[in-house]
Amino acid sequence: MIYERVALIGLGLIAGSMGLRMKRDGLVGEVVGTARSAETRDVAVALGLCDRVTEDAAAAVAGADLVVLCVPVGAMEDVAAEIGPHLAPGTTVTDVGSVKRAVIEAVAPHLPAGVHFVPAHPLAGTEHSGPRSGFPELFERRWCLMTPGAETDPDAVSRLSDLWTAMGSRVDRMDPDHHDLVLAVTSHAPHLIAYTMVGVADDLGRVTDSEVIEYSAAGFRDFTRIAASDPVMWRDVFLTNKDATLEILGRFTEELFALQRAIRTGDGAMLHDYFTRTRAIRRGIIEAGQDIDAPDFGRSTGR
Ligand SMILES: NC(=O)c1ccc[n+]([C@@H]2O[C@H](COP(=O)([O-])OP(=O)(O)OC[C@H]3O[C@@H](n4cnc5c(N)ncnc54)[C@H](O)[C@@H]3O)[C@@H](O)[C@H]2O)c1
Ligand SMILES: O=C(O)C(=O)C[C@]1(C(=O)O)C=C[C@@H](O)C=C1
């Protein structure tokens, strides 16, 4: 048993998946959940993702040796302020937020001395949200990036790492600013581009009433899946990872203009070279065993 009592604050996709996994595999003694709405609390108990629920977060953290903040990034500070006075020394507090620097700045000032803060981010999710969307295999073979400060108790870090490993993740450590830049490239900007592309199609007035849906090619369908992601979560991601996202979008725009020019001037060689380079990146991901959606990670098919 890795922890005696885990408190999950905010019972959505990530907390639900953690709770189901911890319960299924007996990784912790007790899971206590807290959510603002009575309906969410009832669903959480009915689904068995926690042993019991409390109405307020302060009650949930009492006696917990691990507290996991699973709310949108913009809500982390309010939750930390609420639970801070009720945390006992020796407790580990972690989060699962998609942005790390802003969460550290929002949460750390509210934690009393003796509490270990180990920020983390599982690189796993879906476009669905809420407790019903959780499933215990969500973190299987996915990275979990931890961004603790240099002064953080190493035992607290390795115990949390053990929990993520037991939930199926591969764990790595990163500097928080570096995390935010990497995720701006791999997750945040791509989401914004998907949102934009679906918005463009919608502006053409055909998304809902027929052709775009009826004749939707795989590329656009993938965009619509991503663009169906939770509006609150993604609003908060962009507001709190502003600098890195703007930096990447600036570079994206430059590349887009270069491709636009190649199309206008009929520069087929430029387009061919560009697409050859990007294809190699996809193959690199597969060879590194990162394409977890491919049945055999693509190794035999060479996809
Ligand atoms: N969905 C993903 O793909 C994904 C992946 C990795 C990390 N994350 C991060 O995990 C966190 C949770 O995301 P999720 O997908 O589980 O979201 P979710 O919408 O499924 O769940 C979030 C829960 O937090 C609750 N909540 C919101 N504000 C609150 C507040 N002020 N106080 C208490 N509860 C509050 C909501 O009611 C909801 O039940 C976010 O910080 C997100 O950035 C999400
Ligand atoms: O698969 C998806 O639906 C996701 O968008 C998951 C995804 C991602 O970009 O990979 C989204 C946000 C997270 O912080 C981590 C994972």
TrEMBL record:
Record GO terms (molecular function): NAD+ binding; prephenate dehydrogenase (NAD+) activity; prephenate dehydrogenase (NADP+) activity
Domain Prephenate/arogenate dehydrogenase per the UniProt entry, residue ranges: 4-293
Alphabetical list of Pfam families matching this protein: PDH_C, PDH_N
Annotated GO biological process: tyrosine biosynthetic process
Enzyme class: oxidoreductase
Domain of life, source organism: Bacteria
Family in the record: Belongs to the prephenate/arogenate dehydrogenase family.
Name of this protein: prephenate dehydrogenase
